[in-house]
Amino acid sequence: MDLSSSALGFQIQIWLAMAYEANNRHSDCITLYQQLERKHPSISIRRQAAELRYILQAPKLKISQEEMVTIPLIGSTYDSYASSWTDKYKDKDEKSSWTTTNQLPSSRDYLGELLQWRPPTGLENNQAFWVALAFWLALVGAAIFLQN
């Protein structure tokens, strides 16, 4: 099997080109993309190689230090918040143990309220309910009768 013309071979060649780029071997990376563009039998793979080469050869933006976005480190403020979070909810019962730790505390447990069984009220006066129940019982009775 010729790997250079298969989907797996294409993926391997793309990974190789990306490894070239990561190791500052830009010319090898561009050469490999150009080979894929010219020689690969699949049109979509040739197009993808051309797009990746285009991105690689695009002019690099020159951004000053003032224009760059700075992201502050979370550091110690997060640690103090995390410890208070675990202390606050340490004694919580097992039913909410499925929640992830990155969720913010909520004043209401919406899912718990949704999943809690509350029997319906007012069915004794609902005629549609009694008609549906009688119809369902008749169907079940007919099915049992016809099986015998």
SSE layout and pairings?
Layout lengths: L6 H16 L3 H14 L3 H15 L17 H14 L21 H6 L11 H21 L1
Helix pairs in contact: 1-2, 2-3
Tell me how many strands there are.
Answer: 0
**Helix fraction bin:** 55-70%
Rg estimate, integer Å: 32 Å
Tally of helical segments: 6
Main pleated sheet: none
- Span of the ends, CA to CA: 62 Å
Task: Note the quaternary state here.
Answer: single chain
Residue runs with pLDDT of under 50 for 5 or more positions: none
Structural class estimated from helices and strands: mainly alpha
- Give the overall form: elongated
Helix and strand sequence: HHHHHH
Instruction: Determine the mean pLDDT.
Output: 79
Q: Strand content of the residues, in percent? A: under 5%
Give a short summary of the structure.
By secondary structure, the chain is mostly helical. The protein is 58% helix and 0% strand.
If you had to describe this structure to a student in words, what would you say it looks like?
By secondary structure, the protein is mainly α. The chain has a domain at 3-57. It is 58% helix and 0% strand. The chain has 6 helices and no strands. Helix 1 packs antiparallel against helix 2 and helix 2 (26-39) runs antiparallel to helix 3 (43-57). The longest helix has 21 residues, at 127-147. The protein is elongated and about 80 Å long. The protein starts with 6 loop residues before the first helix and ends with a helix. 6% of the residues are buried. The model has no long low-confidence stretch (mean pLDDT 79).
